[in-house]
TrEMBL record, chain A:
<dbReference type="InterPro" id="IPR022775">
    <property type="entry name" value="AP_mu_sigma_su"/>
</dbReference>
<keyword id="KW-0333">Golgi apparatus</keyword>
<keyword id="KW-0968">Cytoplasmic vesicle</keyword>
<dbReference type="GO" id="GO:0030659">
    <property type="term" value="C:cytoplasmic vesicle membrane"/>
</dbReference>
<comment type="function">
    <text>Part of the AP-3 complex, an adaptor-related complex which is not clathrin-associated. The complex is associated with the Golgi region as well as more peripheral structures. It facilitates the budding of vesicles from the Golgi membrane and may be directly involved in trafficking to lysosomes. In concert with the BLOC-1 complex, AP-3 is required to target cargos into vesicles assembled at cell bodies for delivery into neurites and nerve terminals.</text>
</comment>
<protein>
    <recommendedName>
        <fullName>AP complex subunit sigma</fullName>
    </recommendedName>
</protein>
<keyword id="KW-0472">Membrane</keyword>
<dbReference type="InterPro" id="IPR000804">
    <property type="entry name" value="Clathrin_sm-chain_CS"/>
</dbReference>
<comment type="similarity">
    <text>Belongs to the adaptor complexes small subunit family.</text>
</comment>
<dbReference type="GO" id="GO:0006896">
    <property type="term" value="P:Golgi to vacuole transport"/>
</dbReference>
<dbReference type="InterPro" id="IPR027155">
    <property type="entry name" value="APS3"/>
</dbReference>
<dbReference type="GO" id="GO:0006886">
    <property type="term" value="P:intracellular protein transport"/>
</dbReference>
<dbReference type="Pfam" id="PF01217">
    <property type="entry name" value="Clat_adaptor_s"/>
</dbReference>
<feature type="domain" description="AP complex mu/sigma subunit">
    <location>
        <begin position="1"/>
        <end position="147"/>
    </location>
</feature>
<dbReference type="GO" id="GO:0030123">
    <property type="term" value="C:AP-3 adaptor complex"/>
</dbReference>
<keyword id="KW-0653">Protein transport</keyword>
<dbReference type="InterPro" id="IPR016635">
    <property type="entry name" value="AP_complex_ssu"/>
</dbReference>
């Protein structure tokens, strides 16, 4: 199970947070801060797995993250997930974002948090991996975007 | 109208949308909070409007603010409003907001049930999808209950997009509403074979999640997953399945064996690192599960270790990390193979990556030996100095202590070194592990008596320099050490060099700033010290010194009497009054030392952590009974007593293994005992540990090496510049090295001497090469005191499960769907088919979760189900005695699963005519489980089975090479072969004859041959038709029951079982094993076995079924396959033989058609089948004959042309007798019926005539048995 997905930038500013277990808002912020603290001090050439995030879960949980340019993508997962699998999943997610936003950059995430959520919803659902095929994900996202567009046009 | 639209859009133009909000926040960096609060005000206004577009926009902005940490729960109702919009765009916004901020306690969630239900059934699949996604985040028990049925319907939706989401969300529903698991499971299982890969992957995902928590319930799915694993190409699915197998294989070693090959293939073939890694992981799990049974997997271990080495050496840090992680799993069972890569692991300790260093640290634990411990710890100490982060440093600290203290300090050769390491560790600033160091100090000082002198000296120095440790009270984690120091100095004060100085140090005003529980220990131990000092000083002529000490106590103690801490205060005032009184006495020149020290007389021994739990509950004491009836519930929570006493010192807890089965524990316990037995330091536990201390030599008798005073007794922390520049522990390392060198030199000298004396002229044998483990002797003889346990404590380690585990509720036995009264608020269509059970006579197999427990009549009901089963098993084992030895071993392996699996698969399908399996009474195991057994017990490669079948059928030539026969033992020939040899061994013994194993193999062919020769007959054939052969011909108890072009039934009726011995009069059961063999090319299924009951004999049927109902055979037969089923009959009178008519109906399924077929047969219960081979000693036999209760009868057999021992063997084998005594051509034999009749035979032979005189307490039975014996011999 994936317990949380956090995206924040090099300064720890959250760009997307998705918890699959309830935490109160202040706790969420604390988790983000702690995670950022743990992740940001790591060099880029060390491994992408991290133990010891005491706030989420216990020893069974790991932080698996990737660092792209200005953004950190952090997945907090338990031992039922394959570490390398999750790394691949992050890659799939980011590539999907890249396709949907055409050369995604931090600004896209800043201004379209909702859209990023909708894309993520096609990848992970309720903490479990839903789809890993990028084409399928993109296709579903696009159909829904078209629906949205047509609805808004009809309204106007 | 147009105007309205225009107005609406103008409104919206003035509203901020999400982008505007984000931009605004970015533009107001200085007063962000203020800006946001104005935005929230705007949002509140927008939410008040009727326009749904405006509302949705507002909710969208709230979602963003929620991310920034603002509580938006106040808008929950508005979110629900937006969710219920008919437009997808707004609905999506609403559900997103809900999924971000709703939780179980959000009260408006109750309002959403109907809306969600509506969305789930929406014609637009995306509405449904959005609802499912949202629900997956905020599902509550109520929602789960109300919507379970709707979601389950969606699992069969036409669109795969919906199916996969519905399948995934079911896991969340199960978690919140466990009752739904049972009805939903069949459909979930179906989805494993969904045509859409996404749905399939989702189903795999959910089942893996479920199985991870309660693996045993999902064992029956193993064949299906195995199929998926070998057919799927989706790495995601493969990874999940392989991980799942990793969880299942500890439960079922046979599964592991089956897995190794395909996994090894995958390891060799895959290019995906993630898949390779998971394969290696699971192979490791398999190896671990097999480690006790099969030593022959070194190739697989080597492969794993090799692959892992490649991973660790990879430049990719991720692979390095994972390689180390997996390596640590191997370490537990195959430490040797890991130790050979020590270089690599030590290298990783220096890695710049903390995660990798931590992993390498884990591995170190298994790499230490007596020889390298000091070196490794030294290396770690250097890391401690260098480490920046406290987490890593703390980790290092705990690792050092772990490594050193493991297996009762097994690897420590020099405890002075260890104490100084501990003292050095006290330098660590801000560590959280002060208590850990403290407990180690206490433990070592208490348990290693020889070290006390040294420890006390060190602790005294620590106390003296306490101010350095506690300089800053804020970081007082480390001051816990003072707790230990004070206690050690007090308790072992007789070893103190300068007790007065230490006493003074313990009573300094600064002490009052320490935490309360430490002060309390200070005060108490000051009193102990005081007692010692008095004792020392009273011997002197000058009494002023003693009085001065008393005065000091009286001066200093009032400080503690004023302490805010209750315990400190109490102890201090007690002791103060005591000292005042002592002072009075001293002034009168009364000798008090003796009395004062009596206060602290006696040794304090370590108590085992579980000792309290192990105190047996006295008879008649009910711990759960109320002493006083509880008061009414009104005054509950605020009245709860707070902890009065200071918290117990937290023990360093090892990672808990949540689910270790008992056999495993027993094994470990055994291993531990072994280890303790071999440990020279270990005092073996004796019944009363108190005794140990009386008998053990006192401390003074233990040779203690002189403390080398070249090592300053100072806390390193206190002396920034060491005289020698080395930290103290290093000096010990040096000393130890020197010592070892010396030892070695001495040894060499001795050897040289010897050699010189002997002048044997042998080459240099012992040169200065690295010494072996054994050569290192500890610095001084140390005894490590065992922990005290209450007398007659039970040696059990029961690890409790966490009672709060949410997954516990999901521990549902999915195979056994017997329950009749499960609450099901689900539609009728969801009702589960209740599986029919073959026989109610053997309920134990289904008692897995205690639900299906329809207890055996003979067993008292009070006992817990487990106990009951165990007991039953034991009894059965007793009865089966040596015969079942090998089985027992297997049982040990499986423990719980044993029941689940029934006995069938334990027996190779076609063979072992002789093995009587009590567990294999027809069980209520579900079809799947039997299928699993079948799958596991059968050939790993189906073709093999086919081969076996053909061998079995087409073997008319008895001369066929013995080798082919082995092929018909489908699974791991090695294993069965040994089994076979064992059983044959047994036979040998029984028949007191020598027989070659080869024949045993041949026998099978004969056996099949025999069926063939009789083939086609629809009639029961008397068992034991055998050809004449020298030496002893093979014999079989299986006889052909019936056969047609589709199926062949073979029966073994020799298996009689009376349920529990000691209750022989009561239930008499006969178990009939029938082998079904599919001879056709079609698939046979839905087999039903039915017998027309007679007055005397009845087939046992499950409760609730009518007297004429058939029993479903719990498996299906693919072409060419055979399997065995067992049926239980109750027989009232056993004195007469019985014949029962029966029918087998089944469906023959071809590719294009399926037809119903029927096969009639007759079951023949001979009287001998009611006899049980029971050994009898000659004296008991004689007594029996003397008793005169037996009626006699005799029979003469003419023309018996076989050696006497063959004759006896035949009687033994076919008629279940055992030989009591044999003298030349005369033998006495004995057997017993299931109802307790004794049958005694005296067999004499002369020429071709055999006369049998028989005695039995039941003449009818005897007559029939003799007739049967006669028939047996007339047939040869």
């Amino acid at each position: 199970m994936i317990k949380a997905i956090l995206i924040f930038n090099n300064h720890g500013k959250p760009r997307l947070i998705r918890f699959y277990q309830y935490f109160a808002e202040d706790m969420q912020q604390q988790i983000i801060r702690e995670t950022f603290h743990l992740v940001s001090k790591r060099d880029d050439n060390v491994c992408n797995f991290l133990e010891g995030g005491s706030l989420i879960g216990g020893s069974d949980y790991k932080l698996i993250y990737r660092h792209y340019a200005t953004l950190y993508f952090v997945f907090c997962v338990d031992s039922s997930e394959s570490e390398l699998g999750i790394l691949d999943l992050i890659q799939v997610f980011v590539e999907t974002l890249d396709k949907c936003f055409e050369n995604v950059c931090e600004l896209d995430l800043i201004f379209h948090m909702d859209k990023v959520h909708y894309i993520l919803q096609e990848v992970v659902m309720g903490g479990m991996v839903l789809e890993t095929n990028m084409n399928e994900i993109v296709a579903q996202v696009e159909v829904q975007n078209r629906m949205e567009k047509s609805e808004l046009c009809n309204q106007n | 109208m147009a105007l309205k639209i225009v107005k609406g859009s103008i409104d919206r133009m003035f509203d901020k949308n999400l982008q505007d909000l984000v931009r605004g926040i970015r533009n107001h960096k200085e007063d962000e909070a203020k800006y946001i609060s104005t935005c929230i005000d705007e949002i509140k206004q927008e939410l008040k409007q009727d326009n749904i577009a405006v509302k949705a926009n507002a909710v969208c902005k709230l979602t963003y603010l929620q991310m920034l940490g603002y509580d938006v729960s106040w808008a929950a109702f508005n979110i629900v409003e937006v969710m219920s919009s008919s437009k997808f765009t707004y609905k999506r916004i609403g559900y997103l907001a809900a999924s971000q901020c709703f939780h179980e306690n959000t009260d408006v969630i109750m309002l959403t049930t109907n809306q969600i239900r509506k969305d789930l059934s929406s014609p637009n699949q995306y509405d449904t999808g959005v609802a499912l996604t949202g629900l997956s985040c905020f599902v509550t028990p109520d929602l789960a209950r109300d919507l379970a049925n709707d979601i389950m319907t969606l699992m069969s939706h036409t669109k795969p997009y919906i199916r996969k989401k519905a399948v995934l969300i079911m896991y969340k529903v199960f978690l919140k509403y466990p009752e739904s698991l049972r009805p939903a499971f069949p459909r979930l299982k179906e989805k494993l074979e969904d045509p859409d890969p996404g749905v399939q992957s989702a189903a795999v995902n959910v089942i893996c999640e479920l199985a991870r928590r309660n693996p045993k319930n999902y064992l029956s799915l193993a064949p299906l997953f195995f199929k998926l694993m070998t057919s799927s190409t989706n790495n995601w699915v493969l990874i999940k399945i392989i991980k799942l197998f990793g969880a299942l294989t500890p439960l079922e070693p046979r599964l592991g064996k089956k897995l190794i090959e395909p996994l090894t293939n995958l390891i060799h073939s895959t290019s995906a690192m993630s898949l390779l890694y998971e394969c290696v992981n699971t192979v490791i799990a398999v190896l671990i599960s097999l480690s006790s049974g099969m030593p022959n997997h070194s190739a697989s271990i080597q492969l794993c270790v090799q692959k892992l080495r490649i991973l660790i050496e990879d430049s990719d840090q991720n692979l390095k990390y994972l390689g180390l992680l997996a390596m640590s799993k191997i370490l537990k069972t195959h430490p040797k193979s890991v130790q050979s890569h020590k270089d690599l692991i030590l290298q990783c300790l220096d890695d710049k990556d903390e995660s990798i260093r931590l992993r390498a640290l884990d591995l170190l634990y298994g790499m230490v030996s007596k020889k390298n411990l000091m070196e490794i710890v030294k290396k770690l100490m250097i890391h401690v100095d260098k480490a920046e982060g406290t987490t890593y440093r703390d980790e290092l600290l705990t690792k050092i202590i772990d490594i050193c203290s493991q297996s009762n300090y097994q690897y420590i050769t020099n405890f002075e070194w260890y104490i100084s390491i501990l003292v050095e560790l006290t330098r660590l600033e801000g560590t959280r592990h002060g208590h850990l160091i403290a407990s180690q100090m206490l433990d070592v000082a208490i348990r290693v008596k020889a070290i006390r002198v040294f420890a006390v000296a060190q602790m005294a120095t620590l106390l003296d320099n306490a101010h350095l440790l506690t300089g800053n009270m804020q970081r007082n984690g480390i001051c816990e050490v003072l707790y230990a120091a004070a206690w050690i100095c007090g308790e072992f004060s007789e070893h103190l060099e300068n007790p007065v100085q230490t006493l003074e140090a313990m009573l300094r005003p600064k002490v009052a700033t320490l935490p309360g529980h430490i002060q309390a220990v200070y005060v108490q131990n000051a009193a102990k010290l005081f007692a010692t000092i008095l004792k020392n000083q009273e011997g002197n002529t000058d009494s002023t010194a003693a009085q001065e000490t008393s005065q000091m106590m009286i001066d200093r103690l009032p400080l503690f009497v004023q302490s805010a801490n209750l315990e400190v205060q109490e102890r201090a005032s007690c002791i103060l009054q005591l000292v005042k009184y002592i002072q009075k006495l001293q002034q009168k020149d009364v000798e008090v030392a003796e009395e004062v020290s009596a206060l602290f007389a006696g040794e304090l021994n370590p108590v085992a952590p579980k000792a309290q739990k192990k105190v047996p509950v006295p008879e008649g004491l009910d711990l759960d009974a109320w002493i006083n009836e509880p008061p009414s519930e009104s005054e509950s929570e605020d009245e709860q007593p707070k902890a009065i006493f200071t918290k117990e010192e937290p023990k360093h807890s090892r990672p808990r293994h949540t689910e270790v089965d008992e056999k495993e524990l027993a094994r470990r316990r055994e291993a531990r005992k072994q280890e303790q037995a071999n440990n020279p330091f270990y005092i073996k536990a004796s019944p009363s540990s108190q005794k140990v201390y009386q008998e053990a030599p006192g401390v003074e008798h233990i040779p203690v090496v002189q403390i080398d005073l070249s090592v300053p007794l100072k806390v390193p922390a206190t002396t920034p510049s060491h005289p020698t520049g080395l930290p103290m522990s290093d000096q010990y390392v040096k000393l130890e090295e020197e010592r070892r060198q010396k030892e070695r030199a001495e040894k060499k000298k001795k050897e040289k001497k010897k050699r010189k004396e002997k002048r044997s002229g042998r080459g240099k044998k012992h040169d200065s090469g690295p010494e072996s483990e054994e050569d290192i002797t500890p610095a001084h003889v140390v005894d490590i005191v065992t922990e005290e346990m209450p007398e007659n404590a039970l040696p059990s380690d029961d690890d409790d499960k966490d009672p709060n585990d949410p997954h516990k509720a999901l521990d549902i036995d999915l195979d056994n769907l017997l329950e009749t009264t499960a609450r099901r608020p689900l539609a009728d269509s969801e009702k589960l088919p209740v599986r029919s059970h073959r026989a109610a006579g053997a309920p134990k197999s289904s008692a897995e979760d205690g639900e299906a427990e329809n207890a055996t009549p003979q067993e008292p009901k009070k006992k817990s189900s487990k106990e009951k089963r165990d007991k039953k098993k034991d009894k059965e084992r007793d009865r089966k005695r040596s015969k079942e030895e090998k089985k027992k071993k297997k049982h040990k392996h499986e423990e719980k699963e044993e029941d689940l699996l029934g006995g069938q698969a334990e027996e190779p399908v076609v063979q072992s005519e002789e093995t009587k399996e009590v567990e294999a009474q027809p069980t209520s195991t579900s079809a799947e489980v039997s299928d699993l057994d079948f799958w596991l017990s059968n050939a790993p490669v189906p073709s093999n089975t086919q081969e076996a079948a053909t061998v079995a059928e087409a073997a008319p030539a008895p001369e066929a090479p013995a080798g082919t026969a082995a092929d018909s033992e489908p699974e791991e020939p090695k294993d069965t072969e040994t089994e076979e040899s064992k059983s044959s061994k047994h036979k040998k013994k029984k028949q007191k004859k020598e027989k070659e194993e080869k024949e045993k193999k041949k026998k099978k062919k004969h056996h099949h041959h025999h069926h063939h020769s009789d083939g086609g007959g629809e009639e029961s054939v008397q068992n034991g038709t055998v050809e004449e052969e020298e030496p002893l011909p093979p014999m079989s108890n299986y006889c052909l029951l019936a056969e047609n072009s589709y199926i062949k039934m073979m029966m073994e009726d020799a298996d009689q079982v009376c349920d529990i011995q000691g209750n022989l009069q009561d239930g008499s059961q006969v178990v009939v094993s029938v082998i079904f063999e599919n001879k056709s090319d079609s698939f046979l299924k839905s087999m039903e076995f039915n017998v027309l009951d007679s007055l005397n004999s009845k087939l046992q049927r499950p409760e609730g079924s009518g007297p004429h109902d058939g029993l479903t055979v719990p498996f299906q037969l693919p072409p060419g396959v055979s399997n065995e089923a067992r049926f239980v009959f109750t027989v009232q009178s056993i004195v007469m033989p019985q014949k029962l008519k029966g029918t087998l109906t089944f469906i023959v399924k071809n590719e294009d058609s399926s037809t119903h077929e029927k096969l009639d047969f007759k079951l023949h219960f001979t009287c001998t089948s009611y006899l049980i081979t029971t050994p009898c000693y000659s004296d008991a036999f004689a007594k029996l004959l003397e008793s005169g209760d037996l009626k006699s009868s005799s029979v003469r057999l003419e023309g018996v042309n076989m050696p006497f021992h063959h004759l006896l063997a035949r009687i033994c084998f076919h008629h279940h007798f055992s030989v009591v005594e044999r003298i030349d051509s005369c033998a006495s034999m004995y057997s017993r019926s299931i109802q307790g009749h004794h049958v005694c035979l005296l067999v004499k032979t002369s020429g071709q005539t055999v006369s049998i005189d028989a005695k039995c307490d039941e003449p009818t039975l005897l007559g029939n048995v003799l007739d049967e014996i006669k028939q047996t011999f007339s047939q040869c």
